[in-house]
């Protein structure tokens, strides 16, 4: 499964944007975009949304997110804690599946 950074780079290139142009849309530097693309930074859920909006894509195109999950890194319930599932913006940056996927 591709990482957030790999997906970000792919979506940016498909949009025909340079790192500088995407940075301009988000009011940040191209160096910051580069750090996300190289996996040096891991985004909070709010940041994933900003990137998705700037690229006119769904958030899931950048990161596999269980929308019912908590984005602050805390466990949603004791079952998630036992499985090690945390929110996207937390310490454990894992892809999510929907509740239906099991």
Task: Give an account of the 3D structure.
This protein is mostly helical. The chain is built from six helices and no strands. Helix 2 packs across helix 3 (30-37).
Question: CATH superfamily of the domain at 4-62, please?
Answer: lambda repressor-like DNA-binding domains
Instruction: Give me the secondary-structure category.
Output: mainly alpha
Q: What assembly state would you assign to the polypeptide chains in this entry?
A: single chain
Strands, total number: 0
Give the strand content.
Answer: under 5%
Q: What letter string, H or E per element, gives the SSE order? A: HHHHHH
Whole-number average pLDDT?
74
Percent range of helical residues: 40-55%
Question: Any guess at the CATH architecture of the domain at 4-62?
Answer: Orthogonal Bundle
Number of helices: 6
Shape descriptor: globular
CATH topology name of the domain at 4-62, in short, is 434 Repressor (Amino-terminal Domain)
Just give the CATH class of the domain at 4-62. Mainly Alpha
Rounded to an integer, what's the Rg over CA atoms? 14 Å
Main beta-sheet annotation = none
Compute the separation of the termini in Å: 17 Å
Which stretches of 5+ consecutive residues score pLDDT under 50?
66-102
Task: Write the topology of this structure.
Layout: H1 4-14, H2 19-26, H3 30-37, H4 45-55, H5 59-62, H6 78-83
Attribute tags:
disordered C terminus; 434 Repressor (Amino-terminal Domain); single chain; mainly alpha; 102 residues
């Amino acid at each position: 499964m591709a990482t957030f950074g790999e997906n970000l780079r792919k979506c940016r290139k498909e949009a025909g944007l340079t790192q500088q142009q995407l940075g301009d849309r988000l009011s940040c530097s191209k160096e910051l975009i580069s750090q996300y693309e190289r996996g040096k930074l891991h985004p909070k859920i709010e940041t994933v949304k900003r990137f998705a909006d700037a690229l006119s894509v769904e958030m899931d195109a950048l990161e596999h997110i269980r929308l019912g999950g908590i984005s602050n890194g805390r466990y949603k319930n004791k079952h998630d804690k036992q499985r090690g599932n945390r929110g996207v913006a937390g310490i454990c940056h894992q892809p999510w599946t929907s509740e239906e996927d099991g």
